[in-house]
Specification:
The chain folds into eight domains: 115 residues, Ubiquitin-like (UB roll) (Roll), CATH 3.10.20; 75 residues, Ubiquitin-like (UB roll) (Roll), CATH 3.10.20.310; 76 residues, Roll (Ubiquitin-like (UB roll)); 72 residues, membrane protein fhac (Ubiquitin-like (UB roll)); 80 residues, Roll (Ubiquitin-like (UB roll)), CATH 3.10.20.310; 76 residues, membrane protein fhac (Ubiquitin-like (UB roll)); 72 residues, membrane protein fhac (Ubiquitin-like (UB roll), Roll); 144 residues, no CATH class. It contains 16 helices and 29 strands. The longest helix is centred in the first third of the chain and has 23 residues.
């Protein structure tokens, strides 16, 4: 295969919505059909002797040769041509693809002409801008993205006119013209004539006001003759509204409208301010803690008195009281409006506190009483919380169902009686258990499963014949069977479990009914995108193999393993259907992260250090020293087409080397502390699963009584043993040297 590149240049690439792919492929197929399909049909069956790809000046995408299935030496097939178009369009980098065929040496030569999508990667502003280029560029990026397609930018002039209008340039004119630089890249030339900036001519307020209009205008920093700026005005209006909400005007509404005069130099500004009623929230009846009122009735936090919010607040108060053991609590609210004041009054009647008295449990045989009490979770003397009691009763019934008593019932009876003088009622409980017969599994069968996978599906079932029947286990096995089918490529599979009960023998026959649907197989695994690492490195991490089932588990595992390489900033794995109901291509599109990484930083170290005094035989003194320090690191990945990496780290500190105090401030001040570390890493060294690390270092440090210089080399070999353990071995050679020693006689 020959890749034709007429004028190499930077690649313009932008992801394209996958939903457009069928339309584009159909359009591309039809675009070449009238001029070439007759010729192609004339050559069907002839051997292909040459395949050329003309990318119209763009750099060929890495891996593009894998996308074309019309290979040299194979017979020409219309299906192969159509499939190649599907693959190329899946890159989302071409707006049109044409295929030409011509006779060549007893065979046929194919020419794919690919028209790249036009990408606007540069913006050229000129003329009377008045606004910063950065501001204009940010507005375009926010609307269209950093590298939009040219056909998406039809209304870019209108977008910029909106930006200028927001700053008061009401008569701005914008003219656009594209400049095609080849290779699918376009410079959009924008000629701007901003005109004069309009000033405020009149200021009015629409709506009831709480302050004199001049005070409001000063608060909003509005004056006649000033320039109009929409964003700044909206920020000040939002602050003004927040101030009113803090004063209780939760329903305040603010806004503004402008009307430009015909000359474009003056603006009439109208403010809309509706403060609404001032809201106060009050509570009457039984007292509640202030933090509970604020948390459960968040009117102030939400700045709203919506009916839904008030009803939810009432229910939250009720739930709170019920959980405390007040089952007869009543909470309601009312609204009272008068003279722009809105009072919301919550009435709380908590009622008597009810406590749990005796708990009687009858009819149980399988479990001891202690087990049932643990499931119930309620003890004598506790506040009676009806919801918690219901949960405990359900947990008791679930314990019987888990043990195979599918017909077990737990019934309750509550009897209240007055409590001791001065206390609330006491609730006594009688719990009656009807266990019923214990159901056991008699047989387990699978219906409707493809024969080739029946054994594997049977292995996913955890229930066994003779065991107690548990509905939860049967449902879990159903989900496990479905997951197995999905992992085997049956993407439309469905599973249901039918339980047939025998009332005479108290046994259950479990039948898993499967509708598998078609099994989807991988036809091709295609690799494309922006990368320098070898395609073999990428392919080695993929668990998807042509001819094997298209498994969602393998898709996820492939994505995880590619991410673990640490080479790519973006990974996209998609399956592509092109007419077959049972076979799909898998497209792996990757975008490589920068091969070179840089890091640097600096700081300032402050610490104490012992020094010898100035006088001969002087005593040691502790001095505060300042030492600036910094580091620099550079790394390179993807060496020689593989995920090898090499890194260099350098750290240095400026400080004095002398051990004695001196008067003149000297003392060999310089790079007397440093560390240099170089590391080489190669995963899967020598074709094995092991990782090889080679590092070399040079380091010098200053200690309290000596200085130390170290240098050495370390080689380390690591091999994973399963997912939880690894084996490693290494060899280190280093050489140390002491200098500037200050040891006493004892040392």
């Amino acid at each position: 295969m020959v890749l034709v590149d007429r004028s190499p240049g930077p690649t313009g690439r932008r992801p394209w919505a996958a939903r457009c792919l069928p339309i584009l492929v159909l359009g591309g197929w039809l675009s070449y059909a009238p001029g070439a399909v007759a010729d192609v049909r004339d050559y069907l069956g002839l051997p292909i002797v040459e395949v050329n790809l003309d990318f119209d000046g763009t750099e060929p995408p890495p891996g593009s040769d894998e996308l074309v299935v019309t290979r040299v030496g194979t017979p020409l097939s219309m299906a192969d041509v159509r499939e190649s178009i599907w693959h190329l369009f899946s890159l989302a980098r071409f707006s049109d693809i044409r295929v030409d065929a011509s006779p060549r040496g007893g065979g046929v030569a194919l020419q794919y002409e690919l028209t790249p999508v036009r990408i606007v990667d540069r913006l050229a502003f000129r003329g009377d801008l008045k606004l910063a280029r950065r501001r204009l560029r940010e507005a375009i990026d926010e609307r269209y993205g950093a590298r939009p397609r040219f056909d998406q930018m039809a209304d870019v002039a209108e977008v910029l006119r909106g930006v200028y209008s927001d700053e008061g340039y009401l008569k701005a004119r914008i003219a656009t013209s594209p400049i095609d630089r080849g290779g699918g890249l376009t410079t959009l030339d924008l000629e701007v004539s901003a005109g004069e900036r309009a000033r405020l001519a009149t200021l009015t307020i629409d709506g009831p006001v709480l302050q004199p209009e001049p005070v409001i205008f000063r608060r909003l920093n509005l004056r006649i003759g000033e320039y109009y700026a929409r964003e700044a005005l909206e920020r000040r209006l939002a602050d003004y509204a927040d101030n009113l909400r803090d004063r209780g005007y939760f329903e305040v509404v603010v806004g503004h409208a402008i009307a430009g005069r015909s000359d474009g130099r003056q603006i009439d500004l109208t403010l809309t301010i509706d403060p609404g009623s001032r809201v106060s929230v009050e509570f009457e009846g039984d007292p509640l803690p202030s933090e509970i009122r604020e948390t459960l009735v968040p009117v102030a936090q939400e700045s709203s008195v919506d009916e839904d919010l008030l009803e939810d607040s009432s229910r939250r108060l009720l739930d709170y009281l019920w959980r405390l053991g007040f089952p007869r609590a009543v909470v309601d609210y009312r609204r009272t409006a008068a003279d722009l004041e809105l009072r919301i009054v919550f009435h709380v009647d908590q009622g008597p506190l009810v406590r749990v008295g005796r708990i009687e449990i009858e009819g149980y045989e399988t479990f001891p009483r202690s087990v049932l009490e643990d499931r119930l979770g309620v003890a004598s003397g506790d506040p009676f919380v009806e919801a918690s009691f219901a949960v405990g009763v359900a947990a008791m019934a679930e314990a019987y169902r888990e043990a195979g008593y599918s017909d077990a019932r737990v019934e309750t009876q509550v009897v209240e009686e007055p409590g001791p003088s001065g206390s609330g009622p006491i609730a006594h409980f009688r719990i009656t258990v009807t266990e019923g017969p214990r159901q056991r599994v008699r047989s387990i069968s699978i219906e409707g499963a493809p024969k080739s996978v029946s054994t594997r599906l049977e292995g996913a079932i955890t229930a066994g014949a003779g065991e107690a029947y548990e509905r939860s286990i049967a449902l879990a096995d159903r989900d496990a069977i479905l997951q197995e089918l999905l992992s085997l490529g049956y993407e439309s599979a469905s599973v249901r479990v039918d339980a047939s009960f025998d009332p005479d023998t108290h046994q259950v026959d479990l039948i898993y009914v499967i509708e598998a649907g078609a099994q989807i197989l991988v036809e091709h695994v295609l690799i494309a995108g922006q990368f320098r690492v070898s395609a073999a490195t990428i392919r080695r991490e993929l668990t998807l193999v042509p001819g094997q089932p298209l498994s969602q588990d393998r898709l996820a595992e492939s994505r995880r393993r590619l991410s673990a390489l640490g080479l790519f900033r973006r990974i996209r794995i998609t399956d592509i259907s092109h007419g077959s109901d049972t076979r799909r291509d898998v497209l792996v599109a990757v975008e490589e992260a920068p091969a070179t990484t840089l890091g640097y930083g600096g700081g300032f170290e402050v610490g104490t250090r012992l020094r010898q005094g100035r006088a001969a035989g002087g005593f040691a003194v502790e001095r505060i020293e300042f030492a600036p320090r910094g580091f620099f690191e550079i790394g390179r990945r993807n060496l020689w087409g593989k995920n090898r990496s090499v890194d260099l780290f350098v750290r240095a500190s400026l400080r004095s080397r002398n051990e004695r105090e001196v008067d003149d401030g000297s003392g060999e001040f310089g790079l007397n502390e440093y560390r240099v570390l170089g590391t080489f890493r190669e995963p899967r060294a020598f074709g094995s699963a092991a990782e090889l690390l080679v590092s070399t270092f040079l380091e010098q440090s200053i200690r309290s009584s000596f200085s130390l210089r170290q240098r050495g080399v370390r080689v380390e070999w690591r091999r994973p043993l399963g997912s939880t353990a690894s084996l490693s071995g290494g060899y280190t050679f280093n050489k140390d040297r002491l200098f500037d020693e200050q040891f006493n006689a004892e040392e």
